[in-house]
Design a protein that fits this description.
homodimer; 573 residues; Rossmann fold; 3 domains; five-stranded parallel beta sheet; globular
């Protein structure tokens, strides 16, 4: 299919042909995700709804924003990108999320939860101001609907005086099962009969927010979806509408239907993940200490907390996709003497920035942030790389930042955290790839000398991946008779002042799995900037968003290539 | 009054005595705010409600969290801090916000909108886990109630299974008049008769979120407040309750009652504010360019946008206290070819961090952030200092960051922004204190050489305050025959590479009204770190939260003292 004609093409097809198309799309989704990884069950659930959208509306003139965006595969296939799925989520290949630069059919990039309604409102307001009359649609899951940003948007819908269609794709799941009163409310609505729903008598919340409620329907019933959307299309000329549909996550693939959380994201699973260590150690701490509590924003399993939630349900809180609330809840628990652990992906912690600064650190409360998927995360691309956390955390007063060299040190840091009385962040990647000898007792601001050198250059490596690559650099330099000393810089804050002062080497090289600006290296640099005779060279990622690709290839290309680092040292010595 | 006995003391008083107490408190509030500045009208409106809270509950055993916290004056006076009001908001004096370190009656520090419900839930959950039975209360204004964080919290109330009292202090105002569907809903409830409200028939939204609704009552009627709270206290043992009260902002002081926005915050008004320049230039741009749009999060007047909102209502959007939504709305408007300007205080922009990174910068959309109250803001203290923005913005790929040397350059930067097609941030303090000669044409990454020097040291000053202090440093060094060159480093990103490469001076000094870590200086430092013979010394704020005080005294004490900077240079040369 070529751009711009999908609607007309679909409308020329019979229902039988459309149903057959859905099956082809479903088959293609399973094939490509099995081959390249990606979001499986959510996309399988969206097939009929997406075909119906393309049947009723005229994209790209009309515009659809997919919340988070991980459910856009069928949309991409229907908008001229079928062939691209062979390289879905590969370097240079099709993105697993909507990308404006990829197609005119993707009108707004998404990746984090809750932006779709705000974005749709902005697109619609721009349409009104420019005197156009196309339709703007936001498709949002019941999980994302918990996010505060959605409330901020819907609360602003009436004052903004613009009309959009919000489709709640209700499959009862975030990555974990959806929790919260809004979810209960949606369930209550779903429990009613269609007739009652048509009168929308009980949908008063949405009505009060200026949304004409229509639901609840089977989102996997193509005929029903086409009928509803066709009728709603008329309504949209005069008002905003919320369409509530139920879809089956994993629809058409029994294994997914039965294991929605496990099949939310498909990818090669590492032999050992840091999250497993977190789960194990947190349970061990909680056995001994009743103050230990755990908080997650709808990602219990992927963060390794399932065991903790089973063993200590009264001290385990899944707050839904609400990263801001998660941090404030932790701060208040800590204010009353508890020891909260907030486990979260690096990229999603960005939503908590203000609360980390004021609620946690300004009050000096002992909340521990367990920051998973830190550094380059790979195939999900720009919106999911965890390469900014050291930069947005390192300047926050009162926050201690630890970066383990391996899983064993991570375990030791967690044991240490149990008695630590101040804000603490521990950042780590998903998989444990290496272990580096024994673990030194964990003391804030204490680094570990891993290898002695010839006194000319010392490498300060921050985190497992950097340490592994620093060893590679050492190996490459051996042939030249250069032996850099190697340090496990396991605390970004505080720095190991005494070790820094003790270096006889004139060249200090830093390596980190983070952007350079404001990162670990910049802290070291600032310290030596006005000292004659000390040169510091930092290696990390430059000033650009890092696209999808293999983790190692991206690390090589964007700043942590052992060959390039070795070459730099060789040239400087 | 001494700590811990306020409840008993008040309960021993007659209504007449209590009314007289309210008048004394009100008088004291007016006196101290007129003397020291602060939040006037919101505190005047809270007097009776606060006395009633202290009458019915037993603080500090029971706990109350004030949202934002600017309405806590009566609470402070009733909890043994009456005398402290002579030095309210002064250096070392009483804070204008709740402070745990100040009194056991302040159980949780606030300063930014929307945290109170989450915090109360955490305090309450800690109470439940520890087997205590005290009461936890959140007092939140109708303006803060628009914030997404409040929705995230209330949505999580039922799953958390804990009981709190949420008091909506409804005065119809944010800093600007409150907008949004939730506000309309509250107004609708307020329009009903008390009888109907008692049945709470129409308060279904709150009921669905697990809050038993009780309202609407006159929050300035002491007798009614005491009756309601006494009754609710019993209910709280088995459920969460929302009490909706109407208060008169500025109650008892006619000038405030008639001018609630103007008297929200009282302080010496500068002769000229950057916000006035913003309003003037934005209107001029909008006259010529229909794409110009303006967005504010409930602070139209204090950001200088009142004129724009009057002249271009269809292109002006007050979204309420919803900083996240504001940024996404701007991104979407820009995606459709509009030129949105989001004016916001530096400290409140922290709430938009994730959206600045992904919605605006990752998509490369031409949104202009006009960041007011940047740098030390003074008397409001830790929660309101704008000293982090350069650090949380400078590492974001694709963002251009401009810092004007004075109001004239700010105006020129705004004129430039009208044709700039990428994400742009312009940060500036509240008041225009100086002007420095003519303004060079604005080109990203171009700095301005203000003064030549003797070739030994060059000072790179970032922003008006730094430039002013750099001149002071120059003056101090004259006597020693030292003449530093002086540069107006008006772009933090990109840096003026060619000028940096051209410096013959061996010592480069940077000055900025921001924390050192991750700030302007650190970017300069990183650039020269591995170049022999170049020393860089950065002056800015160290690794601590900066308390309330006079702007100049705080700048002197925490890193930008001309005397200390001059002494450093003297010693180094």
């Amino acid at each position: 299919m070529t751009d711009g004609v999908t609607g007309a093409r679909l409308r020329a097809m019979s229902y039988e042909e459309l149903e057959a198309l859905c099956e082809r799309l479903r088959k293609k989704i399973i094939e490509s995700v099995m081959a390249n990884g990606g979001h499986l069950s959510s996309n399988l659930g969206m097939v009929e709804l997406t075909v119906a959208l393309h049947y009723v509306f005229d994209f790209p003139k009309d515009k659809v924003v997919f919340d988070v965006g991980h459910q856009c595969y069928a949309h991409k296939m229907l908008s001229g990108r079928m062939d691209g799925f062979a390289r879905l989520r590969k370097r240079g290949g099709l993105s697993g999320f909507p990308k404006r630069e990829e197609s005119v059919f993707d009108c707004y990039d998404t990746g984090h939860a809750g932006t779709s309604v705000s974005a749709a409102m902005g697109l619609a307001k721009a349409r009104d101001l420019s005197g156009s009359d196309h339709f703007v649609i936001a498709v949002i899951g019941d999980g994302s609907f918990n996010n505060g940003l959605v409330y901020e948007a819907i609360n602003n819908l009436k004052p903004l005086r613009t009309n959009i269609l919000v489709i709640i794709n209700d499959n009862g799941m975030s990555i974990s099962p959806t929790v919260g009163s809004m979810h209960d409310y949606l369930e209550m609505l779903a429990a009613d009969s269609v007739e009652e729903k048509h009168r929308a008598r009980r949908a008063d919340i949405f009505e009060k927010f200026g949304l004409d409620y229509d639901g609840v329907y089977d989102g996997n019933d193509l005929r029903v979806m086409i009928e509803r959307l066709t009728e709603i299309k008329e309504k949209l000329k005069t008002q905003s509408v919320i369409l509530h549909v139920l879809t089956k996550k994993g629809k058409g693939y029994s294994f997914c239907e039965e294991n929605p959380e496990a099949t939310h994201g498909i990818g090669a699973k590492p032999a050992l993940e840091y999250s497993e260590v977190l789960g194990r150690e947190l349970c061990a701490l909680a056995e001994k200490d009743g103050r230990i509590t755990a908080v997650t924003a709808a990602m219990t399993g992927s963060l390794g907390l399932s065991g903790f939630f089973e063993k200590f349900p009264e001290r385990a809180f899944d707050v839904g996709i609400c990263e801001e609330h998660a941090s404030v809840l932790c701060a208040a628990l800590a204010a009353e003497g508890y020891k909260p652990y907030y486990a979260v992906y690096s990229t999603f912690l960005q939503r908590s920035f203000d609360e980390i600064v004021l609620d946690v650190c300004s009050q000096g409360l002992p909340v521990t942030f367990c920051i998973d998927r830190a550094g380059i995360s790979g195939a999900d691309g720009e919106t999911h790389q965890g390469v900014f956390d050291l930069s947005f955390l390192s300047f926050i007063p009162g926050l201690t930042i630890a970066v383990p060299k391996d899983c064993n040190e991570f375990a030791e840091m967690l044991r240490f955290s149990g008695t630590f009385g101040a804000p603490l962040a521990i950042r780590y990647p998903r998989s444990c790839g290496h272990t580096f000898g024994s673990v030194m007792p964990v003391v804030p601001g204490s680094w570990e000398k891993l290898e002695g050198g010839d006194g000319r250059v010392v490498i300060l490596a921050c985190g497992e991946r950097a340490v592994a690559r620093a060893y590679a650099v050492r190996g490459l330099l051996e042939a030249d008779g250069i032996a850099p000393a190697l340090v496990n810089a396991r605390f970004v804050k505080p720095l190991d002042e005494s070790m820094l002062d003790g270096f006889g080497e004139s060249l200090i090289v830093t390596m980190e799995d983070n952007v350079l600006a404001g990162g670990f290296g910049s802290l070291v640099t600032e310290r030596f900037a006005d000292r004659p005779g000390k040169l510091v060279k930092c290696f990390g990622y430059g000033d650009r968003f890092i696209e999808q690709g293999g983790i190692d290839e991206l690390m090589d290309d964007y700043g942590l290539s052992p060959a390039e680092i070795a070459a730099y040292i060789r040239e400087r010595i």
